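Sequence in, structure out.
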Amino acid sequence: MCATRREFLLGVVAGGTALGRDWSQCEPLVASEKAELAAARRQAAHRRRRVIFNNDGDDIWAAGADTPEKFLAVRHTPLLKTHVDSIFYCTTQSFNHFSHDTKVAEVFRSKTGQFAQNNLEAFFKQQTDGLRMSSHFARANGLESIWTLRMNDIHDAWTPAFVPKWKRDDPKRIMSSLTAAEQFNDRRRLWSLVDFEHPDVEPRLLAIIEETLANYDIDGIELDF
């Protein structure tokens, strides 16, 4: 990609179609495009947001919600005719483990235990997923669509199904281990935090962001720390 990574990310965050550009193509920005892009970003950043509805994405395994209509009925359709202007939709289960279609990271496909009703595979067969349905719903109803990315999610510290292969492949990528953390009764029990000083972490995070912005019609990303 000839445009810088920052130009690409800002371009898609500014609304996806800003400047009428196909951001997957290898084209550098000229000065006039940079100015127009900055203006589009300011407009997007300061749009009206009376109420932000932040959806943690657990509706992907809501019982019986295996069609777009049933899925949207769980947490999206009830938002209509309210003061909600923005839908923030999270697909993060843990670092590198997501409930949206990704080739860079890992897809959370488990149907064990509490996830027995995980409808993700059924939606993949319908060429969609929770984030895509959420963004399409937002577009159809004049709402803002934001993807929530948990920057260092630690749900896998107490939910084994969430532990990604990427963490198991190199334990040095994370701060501790389950065995080491068992001696503590405080926040040190959250052993599965990734170590941002490890050289694999930041490039992986940027690749995940870039892929998602390229593949989904969203207005931006919430970097949830």
